[in-house]
Amino acid sequence: MTALKELTLDVVKVRADFPILERKVHGYPLIYLDNAATSQTPRQVIATFDDYYRRYNANIHRGLHTLADEATAAYEGTRETVRAFLNARERREIVFTRGTTEAINLVANAWGRANLKAGDEVLVSLMEHHSNIVPWQLLAEQLGIVIKVIPVDERGVLDLDAYRDLFTERTRLVAVNHVSNAFGTINPVKELAGIAHAHDALILIDGAQAAPHEPIDVQDIDADFYAFSGHKVYGPTGAGALYGKAALLEAMPPWQGGGEMIKTVSFDTGTSFADIPHRFEAGTPAIAEVIALGKALEWVSGIGLELIGGWEQQLLAHATERLVAVDGLRILGTAPHKAGVISFVVDGAHSQDIGLLIDQLGVAIRTGHHCAQPLLTHFGVDATCRASFAAYNTPEEIDIFVDALERVIGMVR
Ligand code: C6P
């Protein structure tokens, strides 16, 4: 009995941490199903900002006064929290960034420019978010590297045989997401890493959609780089992290210059750079946001990602069952291993219209290409509706969402 109880997420208790869930939208209780875009923020995280700005707002690493010490300790404390969250070996393997996009751009610009030359190959999958495509396209234009695309099957599952066949002696890097934001597919990143390493290539994993849903272990995956965003894991916007193996980071030049990232600067002898990770954190960082990110990860760990992921799987199963019964509705992305993300289109109803009208009933879903245009184009659509779940969503909310959807479809058809 106790064991069973421990396996059940107390969603009422979880919801009580999210003040925003009390608000109404167009007179209806908010049903927030756009968590893959940004998850909502628990009061403990919101309180971090108030505490920081009231008590110890100061620049970090530079001051010798109490406030600067406290801010530095809290900021660097988050580095340890992120290290533990990803099970990295060392704190210095964690670089704070604005989010996943900046983390990938860091790898492209620091590692990529130092290690790639014309004709070298980078493998990305068809289901990448634009932020794991465009930085490599920019390098392709500037350095002449070649981008090769790992195909997916009709369920939105990566084609592993095709992946193996893409490797040549010029393959240097595989850049793939852990979980697809558009379809929810969970990719076998450990296997992908093993294959990449067998070909002497590195692997960069975009974990933006995985970090909120399942425990991450970068050592077990054997990831070379792993990126995620705070705002998708119950934290604030403006703070995320890049994990990089220490030896790789150490061998990488900086990509942005400024304060914080130097040891000495001289017009005569030039500049020497700080050790990792500070070499990659030029300028004053998002101090309060990073501290709040630490609080968010503590909040998540306090509940447990196994429990959150398990709850979301129940929501996914319930939503899938309800949605497949809707007349003319087609789910895109039917992988056997999916996170709590459902993309769908409806015959005779444009996704944009559905999104706008369902908002009038208090339901927030995302519509559009989800910054994954190559994937959607491949599946013959330019937009889908996407519902994505978080720890605070309930089966009752899903019922209200699907009822609202049926009402909306009736209005637009
Ligand atoms: N996806 C979505 O609605 P940033 O913006 O840097 O925090 O995250 C970018 C990003 C990178 N990779 C994946 C897999 C993502 O899902 C995202 C963000 C949001 O799906 C906004 S487009």
From TrEMBL:
Keywords from the UniProt entry: Pyridoxal phosphate, Transferase
EC primary class: transferase
SUPFAM superfamilies xrefs: PLP-dependent transferases (SSF53383)
Pfam families named in the record: Aminotran_5
Membrane-traversing stretches: none
Keyword Transferase: yes
Cofactor(s) it depends on: pyridoxal 5'-phosphate
Entries under InterPro entries matching the protein: Aminotrans_V_dom, Cys_dSase_SufS, Cysteine_dSase, PyrdxlP-dep_Trfase, PyrdxlP-dep_Trfase_major, PyrdxlP-dep_Trfase_small
EC number(s) per entry: 2.8.1.7
The UniProt record lists the keyword Lipoprotein: no
UniProt catalytic activity: (sulfur carrier)-H + L-cysteine = (sulfur carrier)-SH + L-alanine
Domain spans labelled Aminotransferase class V: 31-401
Functional description taken from the UniProt entry: Catalyzes the removal of elemental sulfur and selenium atoms from L-cysteine, L-cystine, L-selenocysteine, and L-selenocystine to produce L-alanine.
Family in the record: Belongs to the class-V pyridoxal-phosphate-dependent aminotransferase family. Csd subfamily.
Protein name (record): Probable cysteine desulfurase
